[in-house]
Design brief:
Structural class: mainly beta
Radius of gyration: 15 Å
Number of strands: 14
Shape: globular
Largest sheet: 9 strands, mixed
CATH superfamily: L,D-transpeptidase catalytic domain-like
Distance between the termini: 22 Å
Low-confidence stretches: none
Number of helices: 1
CATH class: Mainly Beta
Order of helices and strands: EEEEEEEEEEEEEHE
Number of domains: 1
Mean pLDDT: 96
CATH architecture: Beta Barrel
CATH topology: L,D-transpeptidase catalytic domain-like
């Protein structure tokens, strides 16, 4: 069981509160944005909704050279997150110089420098089942709803990546 929990509670449409707990003690609380179409128990690709549930965290990435989180990648021109449901690489981070392109759609991470200054994958679809949602992240906010991610102020994202351990979980609730 993780001693670190990120709790995201929907408060109104695409607005939420994110609370970060360590050993059941609240470390901080902050405003968050979620999917522009709210939340769902049945995530579908492109629905603009944030999936409800308890999830592990995956790859952390961002624009900075060094971040304390152990599983961190600095984004560059070659990194894409595939969101094409017909691709064998659906819902995966790929380096386009190392794989054969079989997709028509992807999120080119470097094109979102504000959102992805600091980010971490929320493993809502760990088996990469086509159509069940891709590229769901906890990332920096640009003060507007997301396409399904959870977004908070960059100072809190930086703090999270400095504090998070590999077994931390995120709980997204109604």
């Amino acid at each position: 069981m993780s001693n670190q929990v990120i709790k995201v509670t929907n408060i109104n449409g695409s607005e939420a509160i994110l609370d970060f707990f360590e050993n059941n003690i609240k470390v901080f609380s902050t405003k968050a944005f979620i999917g522009k179409n709210g939340i769902t128990n049945d995530k579908r690709e492109g629905d603009g909704k944030t999936p409800v549930g308890k999830y592990n965290l995956g790859i952390a990435f961002g624009t900075h050279d060094e971040v304390k989180f152990s599983n961190y990648i600095k984004i560059n021109e070659n990194l894409h997150w595939v969101d094409d449901v017909n691709s064998k690489l659906y819902n995966q981070l790929v380096d386009i110089t190392k794989v054969r392109k079989d997709w028509n759609s992807s999120e080119h991470l470097i094109e979102y420098p504000k959102q992805y200054e600091y980010a971490i994958e929320i493993k809502t679809n760990p088996k990469n089942i086509q159509g069940k949602g891709s590229a769901i992240f906890l990332h920096c906010s640009v003060e507007k709803p997301t396409a399904g991610c959870v977004a908070i102020d960059s100072q809190y994202m930086k703090l999270l990546l400095e504090k998070l351990q590999n077994n931390a979980v995120i709980c997204i609730e109604i």
